[in-house]
Amino acid sequence: MLPWAWAEERLVAAHNYWVATASVQRGPHATPVWGLWRDGAFVFSCGPESRKARDLEADARLVVHLESGDDVVTIEGAAERIEPTPELLAAYGAKYGAFDPEIGNWYAVRPRRAFAWQEATFPRSPTRFDF
């Protein structure tokens, strides 16, 4: 079993994350995004007219996972619209460089459940975290 600290280290260090949403009309949708793991939540933004934003408006539930299939971390939760603080924007800019903070909706996702495992130690490492 893996400790939650192992999962958080990977959530902090990741550059790209996959976000999966769904809607009744359009079905499932997955796309990579930039984001931050801060204060126990995954924070990201997307265009207000994007499919992600429209899906989240109808149903806030989503799945977020890292790019890696070797060190896996997947979180399930609900996206909450937030107003980005100056500290959040500074951290985002430090991680990704120049961006326009005025473009897009900002969301925070606090995990309700998470899964993690390492390919190298599978099947001994799969771990479920309930929050």
Report on the architecture of this protein:
The chain is α+β, with helices and mostly antiparallel strands. It has one domain: Electron Transport, Fmn-binding Protein, Chain A (Pnp Oxidase, Chain A, Roll). It has three helices and eight strands; from the N terminus they run H-E-E-E-E-H-E-E-H-E-E. The chain has helices spanning 4-13, 51-58, 86-96, and strands spanning 17-23, 27-33, 35-38, 41-46, 61-66, 71-82, 105-118, 127-130. Strands 1, 2, 3, 4, 5, 6, 7 and 8 form an eight-stranded antiparallel beta sheet that branches. A hairpin with an 8-residue loop joins strand 7 and strand 8 (127-130). The longest helix has 11 residues, at 86-96. It is globular. It starts with a helix and ends with a strand.
User: How can the largest sheet be summarized?
Assistant: 8 strands, antiparallel
Write down the CATH class: Mainly Beta
Give the helices and strands as they follow along the chain: HEEEEHEEHEE
- CATH overall fold name: Pnp Oxidase, Chain A
Helix content range: 10-25%
Shape: globular
CATH homologous superfamily title:
Electron Transport, Fmn-binding Protein, Chain A
Query: What's the end-to-end separation, in Å?
Result: 16 Å
What is the radius of gyration computed over CA atoms, rounded to a whole number of angstroms?
15 Å
The number of distinct β-strands equals 8
The structural class is alpha+beta
Number of continuous helical runs:
3
